[in-house]
Amino acid sequence: KNKQFHYVITDTSVLTEKENHCLKKKDKSRIQKRQKRLYCGKKIQAITTKNNLILGVSLEKINTFDGKLFPDIIGFILQEKILVKNILADKAYGSEENREFSQEYNTFLCSPYRENQIKDLPQNKKNLYKNRSKIENIFKEIKNSKGKYRLSFKGVRNKKRQEGLVYLTAWLWNRNMFVAVIFPCYIGFTIY
Structure pTM? Predict the structure, then answer.
């Protein structure tokens, strides 16, 4: 049976492998420059629901532009037989090609227009877009070095191990969200 959602949220976040002072010349292909700092690592892309459940995650090269990953999101939605009315994403996904591509599959890409684009989002979509902060909070909690999940690639160079860490973290997140939503009396206890 098809899963049906009013909206899903997607975004990417950078997971670093090395600290700034440890970067070497051989790391140049895996470096992204942002705000005068160098990052060496990978990008994690996630798709979540309004209930903060992670539907899918993928690991990408750090230099991959977010807007180029949008066809992968639509492919994932089609493969998993998910019916979605709206996809909430940040400005990086908001190109005209991505908007047209999403309309081909009867979804609306709710992403702010860039400064060089004349259009603006309708008011009802602006109100819906406010829900995008949920995925930012998920990334913040997953990457918190003192939190429950502590997702980090520092010292992990093997791609398969990195993917395994990402999938395991997503599974643990969903398990804890399921327990919190279905069995709220169990919060604070470990269930085996």
Answer: 0.81
The encoded tokens of residue 33 equal 């420059």
Q: CB burial class (10 A; 0-12, 13-18, 19+) of residue 59?
A: middle
Q: The dihedral of CA 67, 74, 141, 44: what is its sign?
A: negative
152 Cβ neighbours under 8 A, 6+ residues apart: 15, 16, 143, 145
Residue 134 Cα distances to 8, 52, 106, angstroms: 10, 7, 24
- Whole-angstrom Cα distance, residue 116 to residue 188? 48
Q: Which H helix or E strand runs over 175?
A: helix 159-182
Residue with tokens 């970067």: 23
pLDDT tens track for 135-155: 999 999 998 877 788 888 877
Q: Which amino acid, one-letter code, is at 122?
A: P
